[in-house]
Amino acid sequence: GGDCTTRGVPAMAATMTTALCAAVPSRVDRARGxxxxxxxxxxxxxxxxxxxxxxxxxLSAPRRGTTASAFGDPDRGSPRWSAPPRGPYRDAxxxxxxEPHRVPRAVLRELDGRENRTxxxxxxxxxxxxxxEEASVFERSGGFVYIRNFFSQRDYDLIRRECASLRTEVGxxxxxxxxxxxxxxxxxxxxxxxxxxxxxxADRLGALTGASLLPADVPVEFRVYPAGSCMDxxxxxxxxxxxxxxxxxxxxNSSDSQTQWQDEHGRRRGGWTEPNSVLMVRAxxxxxxVTPxxxxxxxxxxxxxxxxxxxxxxxxxNLTTYER
Length: 324
Fold this sequence. Notes:
alpha+beta, 5-stranded antiparallel beta sheet, disordered N terminus
C-alpha cells in the first residue's frame, strides 16, 4: 500500500476540511481493515468519486501502473493482492467493541509542539503515528512484497527471449527443499544478469525497503518448475552477515502452482504469480513455499540485493547448487 501521512493544518483549513467532510459519504475500506467515519449521504445526493481516506479528501479512481503489496489469503478463494488488515475492528452498533479512541488534531498539534519544546515522552498516539510514517512498504506488508509490472513491456519481451536461450543449459538442483526443479547460474556478462543487477533496480527496491541496497555478487539464477516440481516450506539462508533481500521474477507461468507464505500470526497467504512480477523477501525472515506443479510450467529469474558484501560460509556452498 501507499504511504498515508496525516499532518496538522491551520484552523481555517481545518474548518474547510470539516465542511467538506460533511458532504462526503462514510466508507469502510475492507481491504485495509480500517473504517473512515462520516455522515451517510441522502438518497437524492448524486454519486461522488471523492472519498475520505486517512483524514484527507481523495479521488476513488484506482492508481495505475506498478503496485507493491502483500499477498492475500488463498484459503478464501481467489488471491487478493492487498496489504494485511491493520488490526481487528468491530462495530459498536452490532454489539462489538468500541472504535479505538482518536485524539483530535488540535490536541495532536499541541502535544507535538509540547514534545518539541520540552523533550517529554511522546504521547502514545504520536508514537504510533510516527512509527507508521517511518515504516517502509516492506515492513508494512509483513516482510513479503509482491510487485506487478516490474519491467516495461519492451524490456520484458527482451528478457524473455534471452532466457529462452538459457533453457538448454539448465540442470538438476541440489537444494534439499527444492524438488525436481531445474536451473542454471547466469554469467555476469549475460544481458539477463545486467537487466536485474544495476543501480536503477537497486534504487527502486531500496525505496520499498527503506535501506541502501547493493547488487549482490551471488549469481543470478534462471529456474524452471516443470510438472511435478515444488519447493517445501523454508526460510532463505543468509549469504551475507546482514541477511540479503531475495527476489523472484516470474518470467512465464502456465502452471497451477502458488507461492505461499506465513504471516506473523501463522496465517497462510499467497497466490498465483503473474508474468513480469517480482516477489521480495528477506533471508531468515518469512517462511514460504511453492506448491506442486500439476499442470503447465513456471519459469523464474532469482536475483539478490544486499546491504553489505561481507559473506557467510553459506555463500560459498550456494555456488555448487546445480549439476550438469
